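About this split. The held-out portion is used to measure sequence recovery: a designer receives only the structure tokens and must propose an amino acid at every position. Recovery is the fraction of positions where the proposal matches the reference. Here is one held-out target exactly as it appears in the evaluation file.
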């Protein structure tokens, strides 16, 4: 019974990644990154609900892309493969650095420090672009030899 639940969770995760690999999903979510700061800046948690809702539905609202030609598609599909393997590589370092920048941006927004919040968000978004490049390369190197998890 436990195996069945794990298989269902894996299938659900796979379906989410397939839909999120639509370039519209990937790019709109990336462009939405600054919205995460709004509830911290305004200190109105009612602003968190629509931002959280968007971040939750974004990976599933778009259709699965027809092909894996788009760079964003390959980046998201590579991330799915990478998460399954969790190698200790440059992508892990870039991912941690982006997370640290995001946390710093949230802290700066909470203190209403516009320049640090904006700068850290910009750096975070740039690091995500680097991470996506690494994920696209990861996918390109492995798509024919490793099944996605």
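Reference sequence for scoring:
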């Amino acid at each position: 019974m436990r195996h069945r639940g794990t298989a269902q969770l894996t299938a659900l995760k796979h379906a989410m990644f397939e839909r999120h690999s639509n370039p519209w999903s990937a790019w709109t979510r990336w462009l939405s990154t600054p919205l995460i700061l709004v509830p911290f800046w305004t200190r109105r948690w009612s602003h968190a609900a629509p931002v959280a809702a968007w971040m939750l539905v974004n990976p599933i609202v778009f259709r699965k892309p027809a092909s894996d030609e788009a760079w964003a598609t390959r980046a998201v599909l590579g991330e799915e493969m990478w998460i399954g393997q969790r190698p200790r590589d440059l992508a892990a370092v870039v991912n941690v650095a982006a997370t640290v920048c995001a946390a710093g941006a949230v802290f700066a927004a909470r203190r209403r420090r516009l320049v640090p919040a904006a700068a850290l968000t910009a750096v975070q978004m740039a690091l995500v672009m680097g991470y996506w490049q690494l994920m696209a390369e990861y996918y390109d190197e492995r798509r024919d030899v490793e099944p996605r998890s």
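Annotator remark: The first helix runs from residue 2 to 20.
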